[in-house]
Specification:
With 266 residues, the chain is an alpha/beta fold. 39% of the residues lie in helices and 18% in strands. The protein contains nine helices and eight strands. Strands 1-2-4-3-5-6-7-8 form an eight-stranded mixed sheet, sandwiched between helices. Strand 7, helix 8 and strand 8 form a beta-alpha-beta unit.
Length: 266
């Protein structure tokens, strides 16, 4: 009986060691608390500094979405990354709303979440990455454009990188104050209209989109613009739709891209 209890206690301890951390942030920049899951790799306790990646979920998702797609703990173990999954509050688009004073996600991310994660976890400041899907794909590249010095690289899968593609949909109009489609606000917050800001940034990034995706044409346009600007962009165009089967495939490609880039940084 004692042997059974000892084995049971060891199993519970092993589970606890691998369970994700859950952080909850109360922020003046957000209309409600933000829950964040953090997955630490199995070598976390024995490491001095580790690479870290933020994974942003899509419209209508939450902080659990990525773990449901790709087993974030397994990815943390296999690739040696600390994986941080914030909540984008259903439809924040990860930007500072010009119309809603308490929907300032960019400010929350850079002024509260980013420094707190850096303080709490053993992350290598030179090896911080960001990626996301759909709304989160837009968010990852958008935040990378705003503060490229904070990231080693960035990614987007099925990204809504041209916001007028979401005109009248996905809660984006309310965030922008419901401007007409020709209003410059749509371009002000769109990745595709701000990508030239990376022209002097000598950092690689990756984005992909399935050929059956409703964001496919805009991602092709982004690729053409990156080529014209001679940015260090890798674009993967491949069969697939806007769904979890595609994201499960594409996120592995992105982790491989980041792993290979880490090898170059050594």
């Amino acid at each position: 009986m004692k042997k059974f209890l000892l084995l049971f206690a060891m199993a519970i301890g092993a589970f606890a060691a691998n369970a994700q951390d859950q952080l909850i942030y109360q922020s003046k920049n957000l209309p409600k608390p933000d829950t964040v899951w953090v997955f630490k790799p199995k070598n976390y306790n024995n490491a001095e500094k580790l690479p870290l990646i933020y994974l942003l979920h899509g419209y209508s998702g939450n902080y659990k979405q990525w773990h449901g797609i790709m087993d974030a703990q397994q990815y943390a173990d296999d690739y040696g990354f600390i994986i941080v999954c914030p909540d984008g509050l259903f439809n924040s688009w990860y930007l500072n709303s010009p119309a809603k004073a308490n929907w300032q996600y960019e400010s929350f991310f850079f002024n509260e979440l980013f420094p707190d994660i850096k303080k709490k976890y053993k992350a290598d400041e030179q090896k911080i990455f960001i990626s996301g899907l759909s709304m989160g794909g837009h968010g990852a590249l958008y935040l990378f454009i705003q503060r490229p010095s904070l990231f080693a690289s960035a990614g987007s899968t099925s990204g809504g990188i041209k916001l007028t593609d979401a005109f009248g949909k996905y809660g984006l109009g309310d965030l922008l104050g419901n401007p007409p489609k020709e209003d410059p606000l749509w371009k002000q917050f769109s990745v595709i209209d701000n990508i030239e800001k990376l022209k002097e940034v000598n950092k690689p990034f990756i984005f992909d989109c399935g050929s059956g995706d409703f964001f496919y044409q805009s991602n092709n346009e982004l690729k053409q613009k990156c080529d014209q600007l001679k940015l260090k962009a890798t674009y993967i165009s491949q069969p697939g739709a806007h769904n979890r089967n595609y994201w499960a495939k594409s996120i592995k490609q992105q982790f491989e891209f980041f792993k290979n880039y880490l090898a170059e940084l050594k």
